[in-house]
UniProtKB/TrEMBL annotation:
<dbReference type="InterPro" id="IPR026444">
    <property type="entry name" value="Secre_tail"/>
</dbReference>
<dbReference type="Pfam" id="PF17164">
    <property type="entry name" value="DUF5122"/>
</dbReference>
<protein>
    <recommendedName>
        <fullName>T9SS C-terminal target domain-containing protein</fullName>
    </recommendedName>
</protein>
<dbReference type="InterPro" id="IPR013431">
    <property type="entry name" value="Delta_60_rpt"/>
</dbReference>
<keyword id="KW-0732">Signal</keyword>
<feature type="signal peptide">
    <location>
        <begin position="1"/>
        <end position="18"/>
    </location>
</feature>
Amino acid sequence: MIKKLLLPCILMIQSVSAQIVSYDNSFASSGQYAITNNNNIYRTGIIQNPDKSIYLTYTRSSSSPAGPEYIVSKLNANGTIDSSFGNNGETIIPDYYTAAYSQITRQPDGKILLFSFYDDGAAIIRMTSNGQPDTTFGINGVSKISNVFNDFNSVGFGLYLQNDKIIIHGLTIEGPYNYYKSIYRLNNDGSIDNTFGTNGSIKTMGNFVFLDNQSNIVSLITNYSNTNANVTYPNGGMEKYDSNGQPLTSFGNNGSLVFTTSPGLVGTASMDSSNNIVCTNMNNEIFRITPNGTYDSSFTFDSINSYPFTIITITSVVEKNGQYFIAGQTGTTGETFFISKLNPTGSVDSSFNYYSETTADSDGITDMIIDNGHIVAGKGSHILKFLINNATLATAAQPIIGQPTISFENPVKQNLIYDTKETIHSIDIYSGGKIIKTVRSNHSDLSDLPSGVYLVKIRFANGKEATKKLIKN
C-alpha cells in the first residue's frame, strides 16, 4: 500500500510537524531581540506584562572593578526598548550581583521585585513600574538579609508572592558541613515578618522550595544528608509547612517525608498548577512527584525514542493548562536547541512534536513564557519570540512557503519507494535516537533493517526538512 504524506515546509523551522510555525517578525528584529554586551556567564530572566511588554534582567560586562553590572530593562510588545523605563529603557542595580540567575516577579500593583545578592547576603529590590526605586520598601527600595546566598548548584534561591507578603529562600552557612536553606517572609514594606516560622524564618534541607496553591511551603530534598539537621534524608525527601511557616502536621511524619529511593541529581524542578513537582535529572529524564510525595507512575517521558536526536540537556520545563513545554539542547556541542510539548502523561504531543534550530552558539533556553499564540524564550544574549500555529495565526502570519508532497510505501517490505516532485538530498533513518542508515536514492534496499517502527528525517535539496514515522515489516 502506498501511503501519501503531505509534508508542509515551514519557514525557518527544522521540524515541520511542530506547532511553532515561525519567528514572530513583528517582534524586535525578525523575532529576535539581541541584548547588547550581555555577559553569557549569567542567566537572563524574563517576565511578561498583561500588555505583552517584557521585563528582562541580565548582567552586562563591565571594566569596573566591581565586576558585571546588573541590569533591568523593559521591551515594548513589539520588542523595541521602552525608553520611558528607567534611564532610556534600563535601570542599573548598583552594588549587587547575581551568580547565575536574576529572579524577577511582578506584584499585582505593577511594582517589580528582584532577588539578588551583595557581599554578605541577599538583597530584595523593589522598583516602580517605570524603573525607579520604590522608597516605601526597605531602605531606598532595598531590603537586605545577611547570610542568605545562592547555593552550590546555582538554582537554590527563589522569590514568591504570598498574598501581600514576600517569600524568599537561599543558602545559609553556619560552619563546615552545617548549611541549610533559609526561608524568610517579608512584609510589604520589606521588613522581616517575625510572625512567620521562628522569628521570621524556616530552616530546611531542601534543594528546591515552592509555594503551592494553598500558600503552603513545600521543600524538595534531593539525595541530601546533613548530620546537623533534625531529620536526615539519605535518599532525599519532602518537607511541608503551612502558610505561616509551621510544620504541616497532616503531611508525612509531622511535616516531613523521607524518600526510600533517590531522585538522582536533579537539575531543574518546578511546581505545576496541580501541586505536582516536575523534575529533570542529569540523565535527561523528566519525572513527576505528586503532592503526597510519591513518584507519579502515570507520567512517563521517553527521551531516547521520542525524538530523532540525542538530548544533551533539558534546560527548561514550563507547564501550561496541564501540558508541559520543554526546551533543551542537542548536537555535538549543544549548538542545536529544541522546544517540544508533552501531554499530561509525559508523552510527546504529536500535534506539536518539536521545533529545532542550529545556532552559532551553545546557549540553552532558560526562561519560557507561553501565552495564546506565542512562546517567548530567553536564550543567552537573545530574547526569542515564536508564533504558535492555530486557525488564526496560519492566515495572519503567512509563514508557509510551499506544500510539497512525498508518497512512499508504508509499511516498507524491502525497498524504500517514494514519489515526490522535490529533489531529495538524503533520508536518515533513526532508531533509539541514533542514525542507523542513510539513503539517497529511490528503491533503496532496507532489507537489513529489523521489523519495527523508525523515525525518518527527509532532507530536500532546497534545504527543507521533515520528520515522519516509518514502519518496516
